[in-house]
Write a structure and sequence with these properties.
This protein is α/β, with parallel strands linked by helices. It has seven helices and five strands. It has a single domain, classed as 3-Layer(aba) Sandwich (Rossmann fold), CATH 3.40.50.2300.
Length: 170
């Protein structure tokens, strides 16, 4: 008999919980799939150019930001930038400092002189973090400086914030 009463009380508890959950769920805002698609398509419109000579890092950054919904173009050095910008406009550039042929500082100056790129935020990536390197990065036109190895979540937040700020300026 005690087992029967236990089952009744358990069922009563389950019903109370289910009723309260249904009540609270009914008060939640319904998000339609079309709204989710719209948000994702707006984010996908944001394009990032990654200039990084390390193959694994370059491809890793591409994968990370594509998973976040961005369109990502990758190049391994500065000589490929003109081809990339002929095909796309960009909302942000991730730029390594230690590149072959022409370093990131020099590239940033050239990028900021280009009429179609001068307002595109540049985030420097570097294993170097001497005060002189950081200062040179900002003098070259950087909007931020991220030291390698970096915290991926912080980097995603930095990129997202800079892209949103750029959109608000328009």
């Amino acid at each position: 008999m005690a087992s029967h009463n236990h089952k009744i009380h358990t069922q009563f508890l389950a019903n109370k919980i289910a009723k309260l959950v249904r009540q609270r769920m009914s008060q939640e805002k319904v998000v339609f799939l079309s709204e989710i698609r719209q948000v994702l398509s707006q984010k996908k419109q944001s394009k990032i150019l990654v200039v990084e000579d390390d193959d694994s890092l370059r491809l890793g950054l591409k994968r990370i930001f594509e998973e976040e919904g961005y369109s990502v173009t990758v190049v391994s050095d500065g000589t490929q930038i003109p081809y990339a910008i002929q095909e796309n406009s960009f909302d942000l550039i991730l730029l390594d400092i230690g590149l072959p042929w022409i370093n990131g500082f020099e590239l940033a100056v050239f990028i900021k002189e280009h009429p179609g790129l001068k307002n595109v935020p540049i985030v420097f990536l570097s294993g170097r973090d001497q005060e002189t390197d950081v200062k040179q990065a900002f003098l070259s036109g950087a909007d931020d400086f991220i030291k390698k190895p970096f915290d991926i979540e912080k980097m995603k937040k930095t990129v997202s914030t800079l892209i949103e700020l750029k959109k608000e300026e328009k």
